[in-house]
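Intended use. Records like the one below are meant for learning the mapping from a protein sequence to its folded structure. Do not use them to infer anything beyond what is encoded.
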Amino acid sequence: MGTRLEPKMHRHVSVLLLAAAFGVIPASAQNFRVTDTISIGGTGGWDYLKADSANRKLYVSHGGEVEIVDLDAGKPVGRITGMNRIHGIAIADDLGKGFISDGGNNEVVIFDLKDGSVQSKVKAGMNPDGIVYDDASKSVFAFNGRSQDATAIDGTNGSVRNTIALGGKPEFPVSDGKGSVYANIENKNEIVRIDSKNLNIVARWPLTGCESPSGLAIDREHRRLFSVCDNKVMAVVDADSGKVLATPAIGEGPDAAAYDPGLKLAFSSNGGSGTLTVVKESGKDKFSVAETVTTASGARTMALDEKTHKIYLATATFGAAPPPTATNAHPRRSIEPGSFKLLVVSR
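Structure written out for the chain above:
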């Protein structure tokens, strides 16, 4: 005799089946896992990744090159070369341009989104790292870690609009699309808010309970910022008042954050613990961990494809770290040649 579903369970299953048919799964039913691997190969380290969901491309920093991956085919299709120690990539779909922060050459490299050809190179500050395009001002902001300032560049013609002193070491930035650019200041445990049109800092907000913030993401609709912190918390911040609303626990060694507006979930990639933390809103201004997904050691940066809700994390196979020196007390582990790859996390 078959097992009979109780009425409540039957209704629950029916709702999930109906939601799945329309491609919408409630956050409570999410189950993320590593579903694929994309081999890149080559040598050298990496930093940030950026998904261009509209044009179905993924841009991956890799030493002095940017690897271009076809998001639908799931394979590399090209690269942008001729740079030195790349950190991040920003995309301006409305301008048909991309922007690369070349930390080794202290430049922002502007390229064509159609064919990946380099159009020009613009001098930035010292060691441009995090980079973001602000559609409200049609400007790109490169945050320079060593000179502790931000270079604002007109995205339409590549001219430098201004250099903004930050008073601390910047990490990752985001734009709200309404005239504000936000950035974590790692050594001050704070967020700065920049007026993207007037090019001045309008607010400095302490990240209470957060140490050494790095990755940053934004929920534009609900005006929430998500900073990931070295003391294994995610600081959820009101983007208007700067108030820290919650500090849910995440994994060790985070370096990137992402927010999925379709699923209404925030993510932290934790390279130290080899995990991906999934955070959901569990009540008004209350946030909690929905899932902890096993990824791989070193998978500290990521990009989100908002169309498919897939997350891409960069990692490799590591060897032993070299001995500490007077100038480098915590040397990074060596990377085995040819082992660089992307992990694909999906539901």
